[in-house]
Amino acid sequence: MEQNESQLIKEFLPNHVAIIMDGNGRWAKKQGLARVLGHEKGAQSVTETVETAGKLGIQYLTLYAFSTENWSRPKQEIDTLMNLLISSLKKELKTLQKNSIKLVAIGCIEQLPKKAFRQLNEVIEKTKGNEKFTLTLALSYGAREELVRAMKAIALKVKNNIISIEDIDQSTINKHLYTLNLPDVDLLIRTSGELRISNFMLWQSAYAEFYFTDVLWPDFRKEHLVEALLDYQKRERRFGKISEQLI
Ligand code: IPE
Ligand code: IPE
Ligand code: MG
Questions:
Q1: How large is the average pLDDT for residues 47-70?
Q2: Which ligand has an atom closest to residue 42 CA?
Q3: How is 55-88 classified by DSSP, letter by letter?
Q4: What percent of the chain has pLDDT above 90?
Q5: CATH of region 10-142+184-233, choose from 3.40.50.620, 3.30.420.40, 3.40.1180.10, 2.60.300.12
Q6: 83 an active-site residue?
Q7: How far is the CA of 127 from the centre of ligand 3 (A)?
Q8: pTM of the predicted model over 0.85
Q9: Ligand 2 atom 13: the closest Cα is on which residue?
């Protein structure tokens, strides 16, 4: 075990880590390569990060892979990303099974090309009984779209007298989000130096700790995740209280 990793306190690991995997394009540009190669290299970081998170004992890892806004990218890049998704899903199924990882997806996944949608559902179906660790892919995901969808569903239930307005509380909202079966985000990491959320998990990150790193996603390795976790463990999460109340 490396020095840094041995400093991690197992009892204080975040339960749910979410990552905005950013910087594939800039990574490629820096090497004089096409953006697609940045995405391919980024897929390797995904594999390594999933493996590390599992080994360290993190229960929930959520990866922002494609946003609702990313549909505005050039068609060729979208095609590349979708093909990469299909090939990664095919390639990783064995590893998911071997390590008892359950794959789930959040987002408007019906919008994915048919082939990607089918492949994704196949892996979700095949891994649904796995219990060690939950890997969530945010695909065609946007927090605003998610909230609009939830509000429409709740409004319909009110209209049909299934629930009354007085009964609506935070748990009602939670239950109508894509993330209904996931806990709140504890640690939100964004790579590539951008200091923004880009429409990711707005509701679920209400009390998340944020960690920004300049490392570009294709360069993101085990030590960077450990670094983020160590930083997280130095924080005091007060949830509105004062320090003295926390002991
Ligand atoms: C993240 O890398 C991958 C996706 C958003 C799909 P980018 O493709 O955004 O890379 P940059 O930000 O242009 O460097
Ligand atoms: C956010 O990255 C989306 C994903 C990582 C999938 P973007 O690169 O799309 O974000 P912006 O547009 O720079 O904010
Ligand atoms: Mg980007």
A1: 97
A2: 1
A3: HHT-SEEEEEEEESGGGGS-HHHHHHHHHHHHHH
A4: 98
A5: 3.40.1180.10
A6: no
A7: 30
A8: yes
A9: 198
